[in-house]
Design goal:
Layout: H1 16-25, H2 31-37, E1 42-44, E2 50-52, H3 59-68, H4 74-91, E3 96-97, E4 115-119, E5 122-125, E6 130-132, H5 146-158, H6 168-179, E7 187-191, H7 194-209, E8 213-217, H8 226-229, H9 233-236, E9 248-251, H10 268-285, E10 290-296, H11 311-321, E11 325-329, E12 356-359, E13 370-374, H12 376-383, H13 397-412, H14 415-436, E14 440-446, E15 449-457, E16 462-463, H15 465-474, E17 483-484, E18 495-496, H16 503-515, H17 519-537
Parallel strand pairs: 6-17, 8-9, 8-10, 10-11, 11-12
Antiparallel strand pairs: 1-2, 1-3, 4-5, 5-6, 7-13, 12-13, 14-15, 15-16, 15-18
Helix pairs in contact: 1-3, 1-4, 3-4, 5-13, 6-13, 7-12, 10-11, 14-16, 14-17, 15-17
The protein binds pyridoxal-5'-phosphate.
Family: Belongs to the class-III pyridoxal-phosphate-dependent aminotransferase family.
Keywords: Lyase, Mitochondrion, Pyridoxal phosphate
Catalytic activity: phosphoethanolamine + H2O = acetaldehyde + NH4(+) + phosphate
């Protein structure tokens, strides 16, 4: 959002105009970069007050540009000037702020990418440059999958309404989805994003339990709406100690690599569950009552954490005893990403069933849809309030048609089997790299949920935060696809969620790797060596 203040015109300091003209004369700045940067029209000054430097605010610069390049059309002159002004302000230590979503960072901000189309595992920029997409956890069955597109178009041509009308797609999708879950998870609520799903899950838990408080894991992220920032330590801890709300209780992440109880502990599952028991005890001592324990079935941006065996069973027991429910957030890790199971919570064994499961991201392969699935008892308690639940877009016929297509593709293309095969191969390649690079401390994952934990010291397991960031933000490989996009699933920037996305992508990536066996390993080597060099410079 743009602040509503009367912006003063930007003032150039001595030498700045010369610098800008110099920049203008430097034609190495590519056109796509200009196209991107022209969208950035708001600039902050040193004191963080706002200045709007739209093209009309810089007539002198436009004139200067025309003097230097008389043949160029005016619009590109304006773009150039915008860019140069931005750079000049940057040199003065000012930050630039985009007109749209000023708090949202673009990927690879120093050299951002403009993607114009994508197919399978590849994305293409406007110059036709191909990128191997290692960052996308949404295009689960591959970018622009024709079956998904076909299903969407077919239904859109026919009808799109809301769930106040009867429609077969809704019923069929609910049936297909619940068939992937244990029997007791039988009631669906269709919503539009992971955040909406988690927010509704909290409402269900509170209504059912009659309690308000929530236990969450350290480093957790569960969504961007107010109710979820409150229970996402990954976010609220950035706002300082005061930011934690009284109703929120943070339990340690069950991290057996760097946490309190590690792989050498005889029973880390019980030990970490006992921590939750203690959290409940302390809450009760303060007259607070627990409505829910919420956790991703495997923590993703919390550091690629695989809960130790027995952990969820015991936590569930303690939370139930306290009158609360267990919410499994499968927004990132659901829909077969782990390969051998459809849902990641199933890795804990058949004797564990959450009370509520939330889904999102891959569910619609990019179409905004999500879902909450719960038990009959919880749904009845929610309904008993008499308060109607209506969601304008949730469960519309088009979304459900897309959801059905995604489920079909996962099955038809054996993407779960693929996730296991490719995931194992990826881990093998990464293990080879671990032997070569001391910086790789740990490789952990299941299926295509794979993380590489970078360390400064293997013994001490000190997070190599800066090095990880170097790989994430500065890497640019000249091997295979011109550039690959690693993800930054991490706690304190320490874990690279190196190759996390859709199975279809990785299915093809496997083929690409088989065509050119050294490609994947070489990319990692290059990344690691680049950060070795960087580390040496620290
Ligand atoms: C684990 C988890 N839960 C919930 C969300 C929120 O989903 P959305 O961005 O669709 O609202 C995210 C998003 O990154 C997530 O990673």
């Amino acid at each position: 959002m743009v602040p509503s203040v009367d912006p003063p015109a930007p003032v150039l300091v001595e030498g700045e105009l010369e610098y800008i003209v110099e920049k203008i004369l430097d034609s190495r700045v590519s056109r796509w970069k200009l196209q991107y940067l022209v969208k950035w029209k708001g600039y902050a000054q040193e004191d963080n007050s706002w200045v709007f430097a739209s093209d009309v605010h810089a007539p002198d610069l436009v004139r200067a540009f025309h003097m230097a390049h008389p043949g160029r059309p005016g619009s590109s002159a304006c773009q150039f000037v915008s860019f140069c002004l931005l750079e000049a302000l940057g040199r003065r230590g000012c930050t630039s702020v985009p007109l749209v979503r000023p708090s949202c960072k673009v990927f690879f901000a120093k050299d951002p990418i403009k993607i114009v189309c994508a197919k399978g595992q590849y994305m293409f920029d406007e110059k036709g440059e191909r990128y191997l997409d290692c960052i996308n956890n949404v295009a689960h069955v591959g970018h622009s999958h024709p079956e998904v597109t076909k299903a969407a178009v077919k239904q859109m041509e026919l009808l799109n309404t809301n769930s106040r009308f009867l429609h077969d797609n809704l019923v069929q999708y609910a049936e297909r989805l619940t068939a992937t879950l244990p029997e007791k998870l039988s009631v669906c609520y269709f919503v539009n994003s992971g955040s909406e799903a988690n927010d509704l899950a909290l409402r269900l838990a509170r209504q059912f339990s009659g309690h308000h408080d929530v236990i969450t894991l350290d480093h957790a992220y569960h969504g961007h709406v107010t109710s979820l920032i409150d229970i996402s330590p990954y976010k609220f801890q950035q706002l300082g100690k005061e930011a934690k709300k009284e109703y929120v209780h943070v339990a340690p992440s069950p991290d057996t690599y760097r946490g309190k109880y590690r792989e050498d502990h005889p029973d880390p599952g019980t030990a970490y569950a006992d921590e939750v028991k203690d959290v409940i005890k302390k809450a009760h001592q303060n007259n607070r009552q627990i409505s829910a324990f919420i956790a991703e079935s495997m923590q993703s941006c919390g550091g690629q954490i695989i809960p130790p065996p027995g952990y969820f069973q015991k936590v569930s027991e303690y939370v139930h005893k306290a009158g609360g429910v267990f919410i499994a957030d499968e927004v990132q890790v659901g829909f077969g990403r782990v390969g051998k199971h459809f849902w990641s919570f199933q890795l804990q064994g058949e004797d564990f069933v959450p009370d509520i499961v939330t889904m999102g991201k891959p569910i619609g392969n990019g179409h905004p849809m999500s879902c909450v699935v719960t038990t009959k008892e919880i749904a009845e308690a929610f309904g008993a309030t008499g308060l109607e639940y209506f969601n304008t877009f949730g469960g519309n016929p088009v979304s459900c048609a897309i959801g059905l297509a995604v489920l079909d593709i996962i099955e038809k293309e054996d993407l779960r089997g693929n996730a296991t095969r490719v995931g194992n191969y990826l881990v093998e390649l990464l293990q080879e790299q671990k032997e070569k690079h001391q910086m790789i401390g740990d490789i952990r994952g299941v299926g295509l949920f794979v993380g590489v934990d970078l360390v400064k010291d293997r013994q001490l397991r000190t997070p190599a935060t800066a090095e990880a960031q170097h790989i994430i933000y500065n890497n640019s490989s000249s091997i295979g696809p011109k550039r690959y996009c690693p993800s930054h699933g991490m706690a304190q920037s320490l874990v690279l969620d190196w190759m996390s996305p859709d199975q279809h992508f990785n299915h093809r990536a496997l083929r690409a790797a088989l065509d050119r066996p050294a490609a994947l390993a070489a990319i990692l080597t290059e990344s690691t060596e680049a950060s070795d060099r960087k580390a040496a410079a620290f």
